[in-house]
Design brief:
heterodimer; A: alpha+beta; 7 helices; 10% strand; B: alpha/beta; Rossmann fold; 3 domains; four-stranded parallel beta sheet
Chain lengths: 172, 396
């Protein structure tokens, strides 16, 4: 990573700490911002956050590993989380999963080679009355069928582009 | 995206602001007494009397106190809080403000699950509007000396954070691992300060009770379970969605209303709840019989109950925080057992051992997650032995 990129990253983190308060309870909101913008939380970020909040980096690492929406591994611009809980299962989530894998050419837990899509499972998304449900980043889709999977992916490619996280070189 | 018509619910008929106005005319202890008279118990499922919780927090001396709204709705099959927050968030914020007055708190926090991030903007807008109209902020509704504001904090995808002490840990920037209790949050909560943590629906009912009176609420339901409750109904029924029923309704009555009469079993209370077979559909949904946060999943005649148990155990194995051994190891062993049953090579003796393990987990786990995670397994084994034993696996 270039020095200027590091500085920019540090600047962003400082601004978020400013916004959420410079104490331990700001840790998760700050990490969520990092995750949203950079799609993962690198060791460098953990070090910087720990430094600014005056806690040990291991504490930050422990938090990152605990929550399923935070992670160290770079993910795609669009993270697709398909609900695997019983109500969605009864409404046919397995077929939707299969079609997602087919259309993206990856398995669950993987990211496409172009860095655009990551496929993950989610536990109950709270859409049990209109499953199968999936989240694309923060947007929810309900009553998904194998047939509509393609439309959802196309919609990502077209309309979401501008809102997608801007990946820096190191992260891409 | 909406399948539920909320216009006929009690929440739709209660004018917000009136609850807060009537609460602010009362002394804090009068508000708590009104809630006590109504018999309101926690709508998250545990059924702890709301007024008792509030009294503890009110009696604890502290310079700062907190009102926390648990919007970490993660129980499989539950989505009523999403509907309440979408259509009736004012009642929730108002209930929190009333709670602030009742216990002497000036700060409220909504802990919203990360999966519901798309609701955040709507809720922030509502809060801003309440600040503008004097329903939040300094001297709420012109009551000098009563300041109250609400902040939204996001979860990050951890079911266990719905447990109140894990939720507080998460708010403090820690891993969401449950604490030992006591001390309870009402004494030592967020930042070591007295804190009440209540469910989204509980706060909305508080507002309704202040508007319509405690007698109205107390008269509905059974002797120990008062009032109305929202149910999230999904699965094999004609009308899934959110429904409002009085507590004490039997499963049979409920199934009739949602068009699921031919069900072979109903899961009451989500993955952490119990699987009730058709022979017990006369049982009542109430704190004294089948307690639930509102999750009702209907299983039709063709459903494979072992498959259901497997789905739940995969969920718990994934969501166990790993802090205590009975839950971390127990859930993995139960899931393994289900896979053995699936393959048709589990002896009756081993199945009994697994059931004993489940009972140990209920007793020895640290928090509600581990204590309730074997429920589904145990009730499915109890009622559907005939279906799950001696399987012949599909040809490889």
């Amino acid at each position: 990573m270039l020095v200027s990129e590091r500085e920019q990253l540090r600047g962003n983190i400082e601004a978020w700490v400013e916004q959420y308060g410079s104490n331990r309870s700001a840790l998760i909101p700050v990490l969520e911002e990092v995750q949203r913008k950079y799609s993962h939380i690198s060791e460098y970020v953990m070090q910087v956050v720990a430094d600014i909040l005056d806690i040990h980096p291991v504490e930050v690492s422990g938090v990152v590993s605990f929550y399923s929406f935070l992670g160290r591994k770079p993910k795609g611009r669009f993270i697709i989380r398909l609900c695997r809980t019983i109500s969605c299962e009864m409404q046919g989530k397995d077929r939707v999963a299969r079609q997602l894998e087919n259309d993206l050419g990856i398995l669950f837990g993987e990211t496409t080679a172009d860095g655009n899509f990551t496929l993950e499972w989610a536990n109950c998304l709270g859409m049990c009355d209109q499953g199968p449900a999936l989240l694309v980043n923060e947007r929810i889709y309900t009553q998904v069928t194998p047939e509509t999977v393609h439309d959802i992916l196309e919609e990502c490619r077209r309309t979401f582009g501008v809102y997608a996280p801007q990946l820096t070189e190191e992260y891409a | 995206m909406k399948t539920t018509d909320t216009s006929k619910m009690t929440f739709a008929q209660v004018e917000s602001q009136r609850g807060l106005e009537s609460a602010l005319k009362m002394q804090p202890d009068e508000v708590r007494r009104t809630i006590a008279d109504s018999g309101l118990k926690g709508r998250g499922g545990a059924g702890f009397p709301t007024s008792t919780k509030w009294n503890f927090a009110a009696e604890t001396v502290g310079d700062l106190k907190y009102v926390v709204c648990n919007a970490d709705e993660g129980e499989p099959g539950t989505f009523k809080d999403r509907v309440i927050l979408t259509d009736f968030s004012d009642l929730v914020f108002e209930g929190m403000t009333i709670g602030g007055h009742a216990i002497g708190a000036s700060k409220g926090i909504v802990y919203l699950r990360g999966e519901y991030t798309y609701l955040r903007q709507l809720l922030e807008g509502k809060l801003e509007e309440r600040r503008r109209t004097g329903l939040l902020g300094k001297n709420v509704l012109g009551t000098s000396g009563f300041d109250f504001d609400i902040e939204i904090r996001m979860g990050a995808g951890a079911y266990v954070c719905g447990e109140e002490t894990a939720l507080i840990e998460s708010l403090e920037g820690q891993r969401g691992e449950p604490r030992n209790r006591p001390p309870f949050p009402v004494n030592t909560g967020f930042m070591g300060r007295p804190t009440i943590v209540n469910n989204v629906e509980t706060f909305a009912w508080v507002t309704c009770i202040l508007v319509k009176g405690s007698k109205w609420f107390e008269k509905i339901g059974t002797e120990t379970s008062h009032g109305l409750k929202l149910f999230s109904v999904s699965g094999d029924c004609r009308a899934s969605g959110v429904f409002e029923f009085p507590l004490g309704i039997t499963i049979k009555e409920l199934l009739k209303k949602v068009g699921g009469e031919n069900a072979k079993a109903v899961q009451v209370g989500g993955a952490a709840g119990h699987c009730v077979p058709a022979s017990e559909f006369g049982r009542a949904i109430a704190f004294e019989d089948l307690s639930t946060g509102g999750s009702i999943i209907v299983f039709g005649p063709g459903r494979d109950m072992l498959h259901v148990a497997q789905n739940f155990m995969e969920f718990f194995k994934d969501e166990s925080c790993g802090q205590c051994t009975p839950c971390r190891e127990g859930n993995a062993r139960l899931l393994e057992g289900i896979e053995m049953l699936e393959q048709g090579n589990c002896s009756m003796k081993y199945l009994r051992d697994l059931c004993r393990l489940g009972e140990t987990m209920q007793l020895a786990s640290k928090c509600g997650l581990g204590q309730s995670s074997p429920n589904a397994f145990l009730s499915i084994v109890e009622h559907f032995k005939d279906e799950i034993m001696g399987r012949i696996p599909a040809a490889c």
